[in-house]
Amino acid sequence: MDAGPRPNRALARRGLRIQRLDIDPYCGPIVSWIFTQRLARHSMARIARALNDAGIPCPSAADPGRNPHRNGQRWVLPTVRAILANPRYTGHQVWNRQRTDHDLIDAANTTLGHRDVMRWNTPADWIISAQPAHPALVSEADFIAAALVGRYCRVPPQRGDLADL
């Protein structure tokens, strides 16, 4: 959705405009449901299983043109994890989540050139807008709470721990 001219004059001169995200009427409720389930302390695997059991298409099946490199058959744990870890659902714009590294193809032979490799930056390196840039699907408090679910679980006893009793 068009949100007006870019503040960067060089980009504005090229005719580029700011784009604002809008809530997808089909996918938005699914994302909200995923956060609700996680806040109810359901595992990511259980959430993926419930989505598959309900016949809800995974993101790559819902929009195959945008995801041609994925098979689009089922919801999988990494997809649920990626949704729960994406701060854009709070309504804020996020930059610098990934970077491009230029790795040498062969360190011993620099004439072979390099290859571009996309790598994830740590959340501390992300740049998040101070003000919401688009409608939120989840509150910031719920986003943080969902991220903390399962972080403080009890460590199972190791072999031999019970022998000391």
From TrEMBL:
Domain Recombinase intervals: 29-146
InterPro entries, A to Z: DNA_bind_recomb_sf (IPR038109), DNA_bind_recombinase_dom (IPR011109)
Alphabetical list of Pfam families matching this protein: Recombinase
Signal peptide positions (record): none
Domain of life: Bacteria
Gene3D superfamilies referenced in this protein's UniProt entry, alphabetically: Putative Large Serine Recombinase, Chain B, Domain 2
GO molecular function: DNA binding; DNA strand exchange activity
Designated name of the protein: Recombinase domain-containing protein
Organism encoding this protein: Streptomyces botrytidirepellens
